């Protein structure tokens, strides 16, 4: 079975600035859920941005193969259409654009790029309402402008809704639990878990172990100074919780 | 900033590449001698077969204009205009006021077809996909350079008692109405360009809605400047008598030329008791090229007089064109309980300069006004909102709400907000909100991560930004305006 994602000796820096990703290697097979844990400032969010193509970063070495194509050659929207989804730690607000209209534009932009038939309004509305129900997202939230005035929990549920609707092959979740109380955390993780399937993989980025009680990973990586410094099973998360990252700091240098 | 930079680059080149209305119609024209003089004014008046009082009215304005100074307070700069180097009147050579569309020069009909303004009745502004039968009717008055070349749906409007015709024709057919109202909202003393307009105006539309009549269709005037070195000075007068309603749309384009062209129009609206006038403009005059060469100087005076009790006047404008825009559609809230509204979207890019806004003059008791202004600046343009809200001593209970938002695309453009507030009555309540934001790289990235192309992301964010105002436009105009906004942001993918 071909891997879904292969990161090979990736090096990246902030345009005109510091080097953040420093010889990173990672292979993820279809259906696997990997967790990346590491201290603040390790470069975890930067990794998610480099993978999704955010402007402002320069790739100085290595490659990323995703579903058989060289990911780094694609624009952010092409990467999205190829099946990469980034669940933002701080989702952006878009005033004046209703949530439903945004979802419609997003779904159909991707379908169009893939040469698939576009969803009609009634089809989309039905689908969104169904998915919304499972996340406690009501009609009012769908009418409101995207993320404007949403609470932290609402924003994360909205990210999860987008993810469920867009049905990506690969989900990167950056600190998916930040700003969530325990109830919201359960709703969001249930949504994420419902998406787990033999074809779909996930990369769960977090610096707390708590989230991994709800989204249980197959593999856990310790990430420091821009690369993976240690890899283990799901029990590694608990170990880290007890011992901290200090023991891996030296390995990183 | 790569994406935004690309957007900026693209936006910079738009005016050259994207202005779709820049073609020229080859048609012989008859002009007044070049320059401005009493003789030229007499020539225009004679061409129009005007009554003596009209000629006198023009000459009075001219005499006054000679003593006036060009205003300098706006945040716009341009070389001195040589008023002697312009033609003040141009009409198609074979022109004879047409009785029906069959008599209109086919070249001119073609021009309007190309512009998407077919003058065939039963059809509306092109490019809008609305099933036959559900299409709203729109009567069009088409003004080509200095003359009205066609007015549609005359008969149907006549049956409803509505008068909709070129102002030159109204002077002959309804002289008393014209005499009663012309210049009663914008007097000869008003401002430099309005006074000039009074001296030399050539044509424009006249509308009268009788008491209690709801105008059975949208009325529209479509202005086209074709001729070189020719100023366009049209004058529009709309009167909504007691309890009547009318919605009026105005559109405009001009060929691409290297020289600047002057457009100095005057629009006067009068709403009597319980009447309502909704006036919408999609202004798309040629903005000049990316380096600021050419384009229309748009110096326009638009004012509505809510003369009657509980009357209402609402201005909605989408401004994307012109090299310079100097324009403040205003409401004089004279009647008790009257209300005024101003909804504006002003987009500037390239080297465009926009200084636009409104005046809400509260004179009567319990008058209300609402101002929603959205300015979008890109390229090296400058976009200024300038607004005055005032309450007279007698305007007890006057209320205003102003919301004024600016959006910047790129680092080389400017947005400015200049509000003036004067309340001489202690019970007046004025609220003012203003924001300036920049289209952020993060917001575009968020949209693109969800699958939108960069171009679509910019259009989505901008459409969200202007939504409150777009909602105020009649449906078919909203669609056109939305397209226009997308066109002016087209090609933003790097
Ligand atoms: N746009 C930026 N400009 C400058 N420094 C940045 C930028 N983004 C991230 N950094 C720096 O890069 C390092 C890695 O940041 P980040 O990827 O956010 O780490 P993490 O998500 O693991 O906490 C930090 O030192 C951070 O300050
Ligand atoms: Mg982070």
From TrEMBL, chain A:
Belongs to the ABC transporter superfamily. Ycf16 family. Pfam families: ABC_tran (PF00005). The keyword ATP-binding applies. CDD domains: ABC_FeS_Assembly. One of its GO terms (molecular function) is ATP hydrolysis activity. This is ABC transporter ATP-binding protein. Residues 5-250 form the ABC transporter domain. The keyword Nucleotide-binding applies. Keywords: ATP-binding, Nucleotide-binding. It comes from Xanthobacter flavus.
From TrEMBL, chain B:
InterPro entries: Fe-S_cluster_assembly_SufBD, SUF_FeS_clus_asmbl_SufB, SUF_FeS_clus_asmbl_SufBD_core, SUF_FeS_clus_asmbl_SufBD_sf, SufBD_N. Residues 158-214 form the SUF system FeS cluster assembly SufBD N-terminal domain. Pfam families: SUFBD_core, SufBD_N. GO terms for biological process: iron-sulfur cluster assembly. Residues 223-465 form the SUF system FeS cluster assembly SufBD core domain. It comes from the Bacteria. Belongs to the iron-sulfur cluster assembly SufBD family. PANTHER family: FES CLUSTER ASSEMBLY PROTEIN SUF (PTHR30508), UPF0051 PROTEIN ABCI8, CHLOROPLASTIC-RELATED (PTHR30508:SF1). This is Fe-S cluster assembly protein SufB. The lineage of its organism: Bacteria, Pseudomonadati, Pseudomonadota, Alphaproteobacteria, Hyphomicrobiales.
């Amino acid at each position: 079975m071909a891997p879904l994602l292969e990161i090979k000796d990736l090096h990246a820096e902030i345009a005109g600035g510091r080097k953040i990703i420093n010889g990173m290697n990672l292979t993820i097979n279809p259906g696997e859920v990997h967790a990346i844990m590491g201290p603040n400032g390790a470069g975890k969010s930067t990794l998610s941005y480099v993978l999704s193509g955010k402007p402002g970063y320069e790739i100085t070495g290595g490659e990323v193969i995703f579903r058989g194509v060289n990911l780094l050659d694609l624009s952010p929207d092409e990467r999205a259409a190829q099946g990469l989804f980034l669940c933002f730690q701080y989702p952006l607000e878009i005033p004046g654009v209703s949530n439903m209209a945004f979802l419609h534009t997003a779904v159909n932009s991707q379908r169009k790029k893939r040469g698939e038939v576009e969803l009609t309004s009634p089809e989309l509305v039905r689908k969104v309402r169904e998915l919304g129900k499972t996340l406690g997202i009501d009609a009012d939230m769908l009418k409101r402008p995207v993320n404007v005035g949403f609470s932290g929990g609402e924003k994360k549920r909205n990210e999860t809704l987008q993810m469920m609707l867009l049905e990506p092959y690969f989900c990167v979740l950056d600190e998916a639990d930040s700003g969530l109380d325990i109830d919201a955390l359960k709703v969001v993780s249930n949504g994420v878990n419902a998406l787990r399937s033999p074809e779909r993989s996930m990369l769960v980025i977090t610096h707390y172990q708590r989230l991994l009680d709800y989204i249980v990973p197959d593999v856990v990586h310790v990430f420091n100074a821009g690369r993976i410094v240690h890899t283990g099973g799901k029990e590694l998360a608990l170990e880290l919780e007890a011992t901290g990252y200090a023991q891996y700091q030296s390995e990183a240098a | 900033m790569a994406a935004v930079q690309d957007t900026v680059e693209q936006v910079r080149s738009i005016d050259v590449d994207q202005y779709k209305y820049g073609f020229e119609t080859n048609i012989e024209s008859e002009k007044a001698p070049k320059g401005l003089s009493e003789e030229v004014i007499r020539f225009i008046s004679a061409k129009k077969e005007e009554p003596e009082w009209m000629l006198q009215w023009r000459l009075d304005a001219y005499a006054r204009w000679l003593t006036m100074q060009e205003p300098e307070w706006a945040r716009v700069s341009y070389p001195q205009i040589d008023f002697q180097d312009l033609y003040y009147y141009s009409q198609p050579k074979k022109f004879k006021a047409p009785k029906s569309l069959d008599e209109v020069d086919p070249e001119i009909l073609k021009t309007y077809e190309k512009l998407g303004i077919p003058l065939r009745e039963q059809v509306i502004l092109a490019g809008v996909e609305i099933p036959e039968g559900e299409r709203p009717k729109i009567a069009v008055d088409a003004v080509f350079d200095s003359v009205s070349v066609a007015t549609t749906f005359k008969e149907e409007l006549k049956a409803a008692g509505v008068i909709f015709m070129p102002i030159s024709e109204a002077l002959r057919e309804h002289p008393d109405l014209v005499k009663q109202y012309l210049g009663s909202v914008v007097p000869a003393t008003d401002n430099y360009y309005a006074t000039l307009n009074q001296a030399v105006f050539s044509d424009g539309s006249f509308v009268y809605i009788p008491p209690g009549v709801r105008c059975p269709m949208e009325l529209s005037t479509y202005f086209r400047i074709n001729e070189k070195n020719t100023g366009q000075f049209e004058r529009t007068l709309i009167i909504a008598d007691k309890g009547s309603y009318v919605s009026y749309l105005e559109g405009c384009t001009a060929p691409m030329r290297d020289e600047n062209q002057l457009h100095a129009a005057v629009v006067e609206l009068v709403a009597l008791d319980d009447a309502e006038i909704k006036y919408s403009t999609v202004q798309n005059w040629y903005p000049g090229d990316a380096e600021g060469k050419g384009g229309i100087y748009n110096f326009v005076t638009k004012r509505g007089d809510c003369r009657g009790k509980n009357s209402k006047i609402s201005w909605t404008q989408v401004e994307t064109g012109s090299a310079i825009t100097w324009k403040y559609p205003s409401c004089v809230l004279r009647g008790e309980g009257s209300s005024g509204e101003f909804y504006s979207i002003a987009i500037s890019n390239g080297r465009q300069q926009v200084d636009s806004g409104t005046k809400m003059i509260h004179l009567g008791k319990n008058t209300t006004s609402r101002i929603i202004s959205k300015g979008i600046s890109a390229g090296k343009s400058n976009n200024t909102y300038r607004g005055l809200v005032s309450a007279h001593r007698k305007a007890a209970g006057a209320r205003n709400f102003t919301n004024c938002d600016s959006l910047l695309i790129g680092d080389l453009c400017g947005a400015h907000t200049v509000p003036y507030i004067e309340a001489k009555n202690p019970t007046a309540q004025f609220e003012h909100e203003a924001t300036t934001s920049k289209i952020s790289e993060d917001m575009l990235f968020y949209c693109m991560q969800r699958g939108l192309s960069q171009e679509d992301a910019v259009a989505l964010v901008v459409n969200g930004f202007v939504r409150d105002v777009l909602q105020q436009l009649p449906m078919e105009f909203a669609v056109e305006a939305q397209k226009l906004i997308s066109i002016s942001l087209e090609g933003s993918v790097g």
